[in-house]
Amino acid sequence: MIEIKSLTKLYKNKRGIRNISLTIHDGEILGLLGPNGSGKTTLMKALLSLAPDYSGEITVNGKSMRDGFEDIMEKTGALIETPAVYKRLTARQNLELCARKPEDMSDIDRMLDTVGLGANKREKVGHFSLGMKQRLGIAAALLGSPEIVILDEPTNGLDIESVVELREYIHRLNRERGTTFIISGHIASEIEKLCTRTAIISEGEIIADESMERILELYPSMEDFFLAKIRERRGSI
Amino acid sequence: MTRFMFAYKKELKKLLHRKKYIVLVILGAIASLIRFGGTALFSRMTGGSVRLASKLSLEMLPFAVEVLAPVVILFAVCDLFASELSHDTMKVCLMQPVSRFKLLTTKALAALSFGAAAMLVLLLVNLMIQIISGSGFYGFGTALLAYIIDIVPLFGIVFLGIIINLIVRSAAGAAVISLAVYALMKYLGIYTASAGAFLFTAGAKLHLLLLGQTLPFGALMCKLGILFGSILILYSLSYIIFEKKSI
Fold it and tell me: Can you give the pTM of this predicted structure?
């Protein structure tokens, strides 16, 4: 279980996240939905300590992120913003550098096959298309089957077939291994198909947090839920 | 320790894929050959009446420790910090299950290992030249010990480079500034001895203090204090900056 308490991280331009509290249970697929610049990526970066000077508390299975960083990160895979790749290296060599523990090395070929890059594993990543780099980034996040996976707009640059394949793979991992996912996006229909729960972020704050089942009981679609909550928020301001 | 070693090996792997280090070591070997060529030429010009028994491996030590290793180290630091920051691959490192302190240390050790490896290769090349030219293993034992001792001051160059790399985000800019700052410190050490003595770069040839010299204990401790104190300050400073770095 991931517990976030009063998490605040503000940049110099005053953008960021304010006083976010959230509990993510094991095996959930949480969607973070919000407009561009609403703070989705900042929240994910704070969760991974990529933005270290935050206030508030993050605990994973009762262990504080500040004290138990190494143990938590060994079980956490992530893709943040654009995939970070070493262009001079091959796809395989890139995954070797992304391995979190020595045992992950034996999972590299399987993971490359899973994301459809098996045939390109000896190619230099500098020659890859945007979609191929994205698939490599996803492979890096999922390498070694981590218990927690954080994906920031994972379908960016992917073709329709790859989006469907990724969705099925995420559902399979969640079903078979109980993997917890935190996935951000700004396309409501995608989050609707992918997630079991959704939190809407606007201007650095969580303005709604509901299970997908409940959302679809109350609204015709995720898009309607999102628009209603965003308009409610703007009205209140 | 397993996590630390795993992260260290990955940093080494990144550097091993870069060909520029091989080029730098080859240039170092060429410098040795030129040095040896000069000695041989002098002998020939005097019709063989003057023959210099060459301790090439020891003669080339100042070049190895003050030019070759620092350049290799500063380039390696640049590849592992400024280049990773500018290409956004630093987040791959920061998402590894090692604390920032350990990550900084693995990167510093990887850069230092490359500098030390360049010195070792040069030592072996010099030894080969010595053997081929008939000087055999003359002075090799002392040279080996001196090379090992002189690795220690290189830590200062590593952390100096890291600080510059964390401040200057552009990889090319960081490389140029690092080399310029190092050159300036060496210049101060040579031309303004009073100021230069307080810089850690003045202790680059640490073996001179420890091998075959009878320096008063107080003076020796003072010089070692400046060297190790500087390394500690630079290490701490680089960690403080790295710890606060947002990606």
Answer: 0.87
